[in-house]
Every structure is written in C-alpha cells, then in structure tokens.
Q: What sequence folds into this?
C-alpha cells in the first residue's frame, strides 16, 4: 500500500519506519517545505522518504494523521485539495474532540479514529527511540470509514498489536481517562510516569478517577472509579521510565494537548452538570504554565 504520514514527530516517524519495514511505500506530509527527509530508529540505519509531494499524496491508499489535536484542522485543510474521495483518513492523536470538525471537512471520505499506547521519543531531528510497546485500536466513525476494518490488520502487521473496534468511542474514552491522570501530573511535577505509582500521589489519583468515571458513565461508557484508577496505575507502571508527551511539552515550553485531554473531559462534565474540581485544577495549572512561556 501507499501511505502518507502527516506529521514527522515521534509517533509519525515510528509508524512511517515500521510501515516501510513492512513493505509499504511511505511518503511524509509536513509543515516544512523539504521534498525528502531522513528518519531512523535508534541503533538502526537511517531511511530516506519522499516528502510534501502532492502527486504522491493524491496517489495514497491511506492517510495517517499523527499531529497534535490542535493541529488537525490545519493539517486536513492542507490535504483536502489532493484527497481522493475513497482514500481513508486515520486520525491518531491524544485527546478527543476533533472528530466532528473532521467529519464536516471530509464529507463522505472514509474517516477513522485511532488510539495507540505505542510509546516513542525523538532523540534528535532524525532519530526516534521506541520506548514502549502498547496496543493500537482503530475504528470508523462514518459509514465509509466503518468499511475499512482491513486497515487494522495492515497496521497490526507493521506495528503490533492493533485491533479493530466497532465502537471506537469506548476505546478513546478509556485512553482519555488515562491521559487525564498521567499527562497533567507528570507535566506539572516534571516526573516520569512511574513516579505516579508512589503513595504520595494516591489520594489525588483517587479523586481524579472518581470525577472521570462519573463523566464517562454520563457519556454512556460503563466503568467505575476503581477500574479507571487501576488501568492508569497499570500503564504508569508499564511505562515507568517514560516521559509523557505533556511532560515533554512543558519541558520544552511547547503548547500541549491539554484542551483535547482534560479540557475535553471538563466540557463534557459541564454538559452533564458534573463537578470536576480536581481535573479543573490540573487544567488551570497546565494553562498557567503555558502562558508563562512568553512571560518568564
């Protein structure tokens, strides 16, 4: 298959490299103007890829969008003039809230959402480290997208495990719950994920899990606070030495995905008149950090 990877950060690079290794043709679409780029996994030979070629974009069999949530609209706008009506588009990012706008932009073009726990870290502009193996879940959100279940096997062959979800919203909420607990705390305290398993964070995690479970239940997701907490602790333990994406965003003084993660949770809670003081406190703390970047 011919893939276009939108975004050449840690996640996009990891998927681009593994898809090419699996025998697919990979082309990158980025904000830069280069016509080629070089990327490689740590301790492996670098690979060369074509980039930003409208003809290759138009000939793609699948578009995998791996930019941050707040960059999705701009990315889709750049793709639209070149997209074929039958070419599946997969959005893979942390957080939620981009689907409705994407549906409006793409019309009948097959649209799929994906959530992944594959962990990667950019060591340099050209080198990525695969820091943790985790499941990827994929599902369509419009009629044409729901007919693209074959793509789960394609992605599974390149970077397993990957599974198809008939109701992707549940998987997205389960990942959002974990992100709401791990990302802001590791960003604020500048700690690795595993630090959150220590006793000093347990009370705060319990309160966060209780709020998140109430919102998920109101949104039709069957869960409880203990399940939310235990899943989060399991991920924190499995990725103990990893830094969350929000941790790195704060460290490098970049805009984070807090609006698509905790912000999305708070907006849903507001619709259901559910109080989320612990999550709101974390949201404001990250927003204050972001505002301080321009005002040291």
A:
């Amino acid at each position: 298959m011919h893939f276009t990877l939108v975004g050449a950060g840690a996640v996009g690079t990891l998927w681009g490299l593994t898809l090419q290794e699996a025998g697919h043709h990979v082309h990158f679409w980025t904000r830069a103007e280069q016509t080629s780029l070089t990327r490689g996994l740590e301790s492996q030979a670098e690979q060369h890829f074509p980039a930003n070629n409208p003809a290759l974009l138009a000939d793609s069999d699948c578009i995998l969008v791996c930019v941050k949530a707040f960059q999705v609209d701009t990315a889709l706008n750049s793709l639209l003039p070149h997209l074929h009506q039958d070419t599946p588009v997969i959005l893979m990012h942390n957080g939620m809230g981009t689907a409705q706008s994407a549906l409006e932009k793409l019309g009948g073009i097959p649209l799929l959402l994906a959530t992944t726990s594959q962990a990667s870290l950019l060591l340099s502009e050209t080198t990525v480290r695969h820091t943790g193996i985790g499941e990827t879940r994929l599902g369509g959100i419009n009629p044409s997208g729901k007919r693209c279940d074959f793509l789960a096997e394609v992605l599974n062959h390149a970077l397993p495990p990957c599974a198809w979800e008939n109701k992707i919203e549940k998987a997205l909420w389960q990942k959002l719950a974990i992100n709401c607990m791990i990302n802001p705390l590791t960003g604020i305290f500048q700690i690795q994920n595993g630090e959150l398993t220590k006793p000093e964070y347990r009370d705060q995690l319990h309160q966060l899990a209780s709020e998140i479970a109430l919102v998920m239940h109101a949104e039709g997701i069957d869960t409880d606070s203990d399940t939310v907490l235990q899943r989060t602790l399991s991920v924190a333990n499995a990725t103990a030495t990893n830094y969350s994406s929000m941790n790195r965003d704060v460290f490098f003084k970049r805009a984070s995905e807090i609006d698509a993660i905790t912000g999305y949770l708070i907006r849903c809670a507001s619709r259901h008149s559910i109080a989320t003081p612990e999550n709101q406190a974390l949201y404001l703390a990250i927003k204050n950090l972001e505002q301080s970047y321009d005002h040291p």
